[in-house]
Specification:
The chain is of the alpha/beta class. The protein has one domain: Vaccinia Virus protein VP39 (Rossmann fold, 3-Layer(aba) Sandwich). The chain has helices at 3-13, 21-24, 26-39, 71-84, 122-131, 151-159, 163-166, 175-178; strands at 43-47, 63-68, 89-94, 107-113, 133-143, 183-190, 198-204. Strands 3-2-1-4-5-7-6 form a 7-stranded mixed sheet. It binds S-adenosylmethionine. It comes from Pseudooceanicola nanhaiensis.
Length: 214
């Protein structure tokens, strides 16, 4: 998927997202935010925040920043923050996740829910999410990942060429996430109702000490 396709696809999805894909993926957001509420520090970055469906779920005391490339999706997130008085939302910014405009180690937790199979250059997005996460911080990546065998795997491979129309890749490989340097996989959870979506919990590994000089 290229970035122009992201823009046009999510401009089309925005008005119907909450009632369609958004409704079908509620358990992923609930499980992800429950984990962060229980285990993450207060400064949280949600990458690909979309219409902000997860924003009301955060516990008081968290400070959540959301970024998204689509102006249409972000406008809906901003309207939700306003309508529901979500004072824990520190900001919503239009941004390409391939170049996050935050200093290194800015956040205690980074969340990417139903977005890593959508972005162009997901390896670059993963590297950026690791960069802005502090050592010891947690990352949650909730997504559908490719199956290797069975009828569903064949359907996923059949749908793969339609990524630009659908708005996501149906055959996305989990190793793109788990193989990213600088993070370690802590836990994998299959999500209800049928394990279609998976929650990956990862932890930022300590930055290697600088080599001694002299
Ligand atoms: C399927 S929606 C998921 C939204 C939300 N996380 C949720 O769970 O409902 C994927 C989102 O990723 C955003 N996105 C795609 N590519 C992006 C990029 N390069 N930078 C930032 N956001 C991007 C899209 O605009 C869209 O809002």
């Amino acid at each position: 998927m290229d970035i122009d396709a992201v823009k046009s696809s999510y401009a089309r999805w925005a008005p119907i997202y909450d009632r369609t894909f958004g409704a079908a993926t509620r358990s992923g957001r609930t499980a992800s935010v429950e984990f962060m509420n229980a285990e993450a520090g207060p400064e949280i970055l949600e990458v690909g925040v979309g219409t902000g469906l997860a924003l009301p779920l955060y516990a008081p005391g968290k400070r959540v920043t959301g970024v998204d490339y689509s102006d249409e999706m972000l406008a809906r997130a901003a309207a939700r923050v306003e309508a529901e008085g979500l004072t824990h939302v520190a900001g919503l910014r239009q941004m390409d996740a391939r170049e996050l405009d935050f200093p290194d180690a800015s956040f205690d937790a980074v969340a990417a829910m139903h977005m890593i199979s959508v972005v162009p250059e997901p390896e670059r997005v993963m590297a950026e999410m690791v960069r802005v996460l502090r050592p010891g911080g947690v990352m949650v990546v909730t997504n559908h990942f490719a199956r290797e065998t069975g009828g569903l795997a064949r359907i996923e491979r059949f749908m793969a060429p339609f990524a630009n129309v659908l708005g996501w890749h149906s055959d996305f490989d989990k190793s793109v996430v788990t193989g990213t340097p600088g993070i370690a996989l802590r836990e994998t959870r299959a999500l209800p109702p049928v394990g279609m979506m998976t929650l990956l919990i990862l932890e930022r590994t300590p930055v290697a000490a600088a080599a001694a000089v002299g």
